[in-house]
Amino acid sequence: VVAWSSVSRDDKSYFYNNEGMHVSSEQHEGVRELRLCEQGSQTYYITTTTAGDRHAESDNIFPIVTIFGKRGKAITGLLDDPRKDDFQNGRQDTFVFQGLKNVGRIRCIEISVTGDDAWLLEMVEVHSQDSRSPVYFRNENEEWLSADPREGTDNLRLCRRSE
Fold first, then answer.
1. What digits encode the pLDDT tens for the residues 117-132?
2. Which helix (DSSP H) or strand (DSSP E) does residue 77 occupy?
3. Full-prediction pTM beyond 0.85?
4. How far is the C-alpha of 112 from the C-alpha of 102, rounded, in Å?
């Protein structure tokens, strides 16, 4: 959700549903209320490289990235581009998240997934508007991500080698 100031269109705030909750008046379909809080003013660019998928396409996997740094953590919204199929074998996908907390020097990331596909993430590149160079995280153990425990883990933490 993007909210603009009534005084200036340049004054924007960004709010992310980083828990993947559905809002509905029907209790069995989701929650009735959802509290969204502003995190900060940092912009992060996240590029994923997909090494493989266990299904013809991995478009039913919904990742959220938590970025950990010296000053805390920032949580993205869903990595999803509704205009295309994300996470196709051998492809890179880039996502931009504005209005997140500035975590300082990036140390680790954690990828959490929902959905019923399995995704083999090769690498994640993260950089912010303030960083001089990106930070690269490789899935060296080739762990599959999936909400189905028979296919992989639903949570993967990757850290810099020096950490």
1. 889 999 999 999 888 8
2. strand 72-78
3. no
4. 20
Rounded Cα distance between 64 and 17, Å, is 10
Name the DSSP class of 31: B
Joined together, the tokens standing for residue 39 give 């995190």
Cα 126 to Cα 156: distance, rounded to the nearest angstrom: 15
Give the span between the Cα atoms of 39 and 66, in whole angstroms: 12
Question: Which whole number is the average pLDDT over 81-100?
Answer: 89
* Tokens matching residue 134: 């990106």
* Average pLDDT of the segment spanning 85-114: 92
* pLDDT, greater one: 26 or 80: 80
Q: How many CB atoms lie within 10 A of CB 3?
A: 13
Contact 84, 92 (CB under 8 A): no
| Residue 103 to residue 97: CA distance in whole angstroms | 14
CB-based burial label for 158 (10 Å; 0-12, 13-18, 19+): buried
